[in-house]
Write a structure and sequence with these properties.
Two copies of one chain form a homodimer. The mean pLDDT of chain A is 96. In chain A, strand 7, helix 4 and strand 8 form a beta-alpha-beta unit. The radius of gyration of chain A is 22 Å and the shape is elongated. Chain A starts with a strand and ends with a helix. Chain A contains eight helices and eight strands; from the N terminus they run βαβαββαβββαβαααα. Chain A is an alpha/beta fold and 250 residues long. At the A-B interface, helix 5, helix 6, helix 7 and helix 8 of A face helix 5, helix 6, helix 7 and helix 8 of B.
Chain lengths: 250, 250
Amino acid sequence: MDIVLLGSGNVATHLGHALARAGHPIKQVYSRTRVHAQTLAASLGAEATNDLADIRTQAHVYIVAVKDDALATVVAQLPVALKGMVIHTAGSVDMAVLAATKDYGVLYPLQTFSKAKAVDFSTIPIAVEASDEAALVRLEALAGSLSDRVFRCDSQQRLSMHVAAVFACNFTNHLYAIAADILSEHGLDFDVIRPLILETAQKAMEHPPKEVQTGPAVRNDVHTMEKHLALLKVNPALAQLYRLISKRIG
Amino acid sequence: MDIVLLGSGNVATHLGHALARAGHPIKQVYSRTRVHAQTLAASLGAEATNDLADIRTQAHVYIVAVKDDALATVVAQLPVALKGMVIHTAGSVDMAVLAATKDYGVLYPLQTFSKAKAVDFSTIPIAVEASDEAALVRLEALAGSLSDRVFRCDSQQRLSMHVAAVFACNFTNHLYAIAADILSEHGLDFDVIRPLILETAQKAMEHPPKEVQTGPAVRNDVHTMEKHLALLKVNPALAQLYRLISKRIG
């Protein structure tokens, strides 16, 4: 399918390259910032534009992978004449934001993307939703050319996935950062805890997390928790977080 | 070195097998529960006992890997005549608990151990501390026969490592469990988020966590956070945790 890509951030970049590798010609890349459009377009063999009025009208799919709060504005400025399906890639934006277009849908890859790091799209779960069954079937085919793990879900389920991802990814990374701070304050390198972090994630690949919960809180080891709180008393906000999560676990 | 192992839990089991593989004869295994002592001893080619009065006095090292709150009691009951070094393996117990013995130290492997899962000890960071320099050198040699990553630290640093591990391992696993609950409440399988969990941990292998923080909180994306809180309003305690961690990140 001929594709026009709108956006030049991490999702647009990784998705664009994955689509190109899967054999879909990326015809055009739009970004508000001309040089960003040009850089990504060059790497995809596509045309670049920073003007929504210049968007080609004959592509099969328009992927709008811009910041959530820019989505509605970008979609409202798409040429009226365009015929292809318009899709967005956001976890927490209802599909209804696209309702003014003819065919539309959502393709949400449940993964975190970094500029520097290549990802293997074939194992990324991709949630799809579309305006009608025919559009959904086409979207499933497109997503299926990228990943073996495509599944249907509605906007509310997608939102719940994004919330779950905030806990399991964003908040988890913050807990890693807290650990790094605590170690650093005691003259220790973050490296000493890296094997433990990886093992904890790997355990969750094989077990339901609740069944493999370890630590003083689940053992109700009050004496150890008191020692930990004594060490944290220099940072009352951190001690509060320790208490709150321990209470949830215990 | 000839070793007597006291304890039969996950740490005692994994450590016992790693020591045996490294060529240290495990002479005896003690557990309060006779059948536990017998099971572990049989797998290590050792003698079993459930009576501290029967502990052999001629070993080089006595590893006391029992529950934290049993440590002092077990150590107090060790035969007065024993000559070897007595060490414990706990993150949050001060080395001073062993001060009544002659030579003593702590060997703390910074990893989480499960009954079912084999671990490669060679990559596990091991913190060591001992009663004097001579004991420390011997302990470093013992730990060095298990792992390439042995380092010295004092009891306060070890406590800080344990606190850091609670955040980066125990609390992280609880966040995974929260994600599993949210997904389940919306008819979705935990499987959809597993690749994200692994990628998040792998990112922390290569970067300082603070530098790769993603998500609505670090972007100060208030609109998305409001949508997430709306979804969480059925569970006020969870919404409170979401707010607290987002505020720390933002």
